[in-house]
Amino acid sequence: MKHLVLALVVALAGPVTAQTDPTMSAQAAIELLDDARAALDNADRAGDRVEALTQTVQAYEAGLAALREGLRQARVREAAIQGVFLAENDRLAQLLGVLQAIEASPEPHLLLHPEGPLGTARTGMILSEVTPALNREATRLRAALQEVAMLRALQEAAVSTLEDGLAGVQQARTELSQAVSNRTDLPKRFLTDEEAMENLIATADTLESFASGLMTATVEDTSVSIAQPDFQEAQGALDLPVLGRVIRRYNDTDAAGVTRPGWVIATRPLTLVTTPWAATIRYLGPLLDYGQVAILEPGEDYLLVLAGLGQLFGEVGDVLPQGAPIGLMGGAAPGDPQAFLISNGDGSGAEASETLYLELRYRGEPVDPGDWFVGPEG
Q1: Rounded to whole angstroms, how far apart are CA atoms 290 and 281?
Q2: C-alpha–C-alpha distance, residues 354 and 151, integer Å
Q3: SS3 325
Q4: pLDDT (tens digit, 9 = 90+) per residue, 41-92?
């Protein structure tokens, strides 16, 4: 037991040999961000720059989301440990007092007793029983303090990683937008009848009436023949078009009493939106109270509506492969990494300030996206 208090302090100053779940999660996120940074550097040399930059943006978004979650877990874990310390404050003070008393007493004196050999023997028996318990308690304290130090170091070191990640994803989004604008290799199946489209926008009072009128506002180019995968094969297996979580489902009623036959997906500002299936663009632009809207045709008689975007990519008639960028969500990029972290403090999702509305229609009628998409629950 001698030197136990000193050994505890020395151990805290030494390297951490075990990792907690939050640190492992954060380390995995940092690796994702490192991979994204390397992908951005290599995007110029990619055969399909749009595809490469799309994957880069998604890697950055996934890495940043994972890092925020890892840091949130770290704060929760640190608070839990601190709570235990506060709750056991008196008992821990007594324990440290005992340890310090043992530390200050010469070892031979610990075994001497004024009652002679019998008292000395009893003292030895008591110490032999108490010492293992004290050792176990000291080991537990050392591990907890070690973990707190590690969690704090992780949070302090995260700011520079976040700064690099935020700058990297913004650069990748800018380059992706430019690459999409420069793209000339996409086949085009439909042409817009400008007059018919203007009349449709002016007269349509619901999403349903607008979607129905699209057939007359766009003209198919019969000279273009494109083989596309059967959309029916995708039923039940589609990924969400944006990194986020479903907060309202098919025919759910929102706080304002409005019921919509689609999904509302909460996501962060400027998150990339992609095509969940190979599809033809049937409409791009503002519509009613839905904000910027993309309407895609993933299969015959099907229309996929994506509404609430801030920026749209492509042109009407473009045939896009699965996973192609269709736009970015609205909002502004966080300018302060600290604010970026704090906004995720409670894990409530309040930082997901943008919402994407997703609606799938078959032969003019809405169908439940839950039969087609696999997405995180709200």
Answers
A1: 17
A2: 31
A3: strand
A4: 888 887 789 999 999 999 999 988 888 888 888 888 888 888 877 776 676 6
